[in-house]
Amino acid sequence: MIERAREKRAWEDTLPPLSDTSQFEKRRRMMNAMERKEWAFREQEIEKLQEIRLEVLKELLKKRDENQNEVNMARLNAQWSKLQEAKEAKLAQIQRKHVSAIRKLMGKGKNIEGKLERRNIIKDYCDYASQVYGPLSRLGRFPDNNSEDFVVKNHYLNTYEGLVELESCLPDFVTQPRIKPPKPKVTTTKDGFLKRAARVDRELAEVHK
């Protein structure tokens, strides 16, 4: 801009003076040429600005596409995880049915001759190694399944706000215990003489030393 201002000032110095009427047409042609040059420069600057804006717009569109792709990928991952969990649940159900069917077949195999032994409940509960106390996983029993459902989840125990609320419900003597200092043991009588028990304690202490 400084260079252009210098060039314009130098160009203005080359213009014919206004007092010279003979060169008025020359002055007008020079001014028209300079005006066309100015307009061409402004159009070039506008084109540069438009190109810059176009590049910025392309970059914004690119970022928007990338963000949209990330959102789509996260959605697909969530859907895939949900389908995978459903698949695993279905496989577990099929496995349980398979184990149950195998157990039934084994029971029928034991009862081929029609001699089915009845269950002795008293014997099962007397024997701590029986299926009542320690069921085998290979028979389809999993005692630890869904154990997290029995975990106590309490707002008052798991959060700081809940603990503060519980503490506010406690009485003052719990949070602010009052300790009374013990009263000093009186070893003298009202008249100022040493009591007999105190005198005996002092003599015993001296003997101990």
Structure in words:
- 0% of the residues are buried.
- The chain has seven helices and no strands.
- The protein is mainly α.
What are the salient characteristics of this protein?
flat; 7 helices; mainly alpha; 66% helix; cell projection; 209 residues
Distance between the termini: 107 Å
* Helix and strand composition category: mainly alpha
Uncertain residue segments? none
Number of helices: 7
In total, the number of strands is 0
Share of residues in strands: under 5%
How would you describe the shape?
Answer: flat
Along the chain, the helix and strand elements come as HHHHHHH
Query: What does the average pLDDT come to?
Result: 81
Percent range for helical residues?
55-70%
The value of Rg in angstroms is 51 Å
Can you summarize the main beta sheet?
Answer: none
Summarize the helices and strands and which ones pair or pack.
Blueprint: H1 2-14, H2 24-110, H3 121-126, H4 155-158, H5 160-169, H6 172-175, H7 196-208
Summary, kept brief:
It holds the Pfam family CFAP91. The chain is mainly α and 209 residues long.
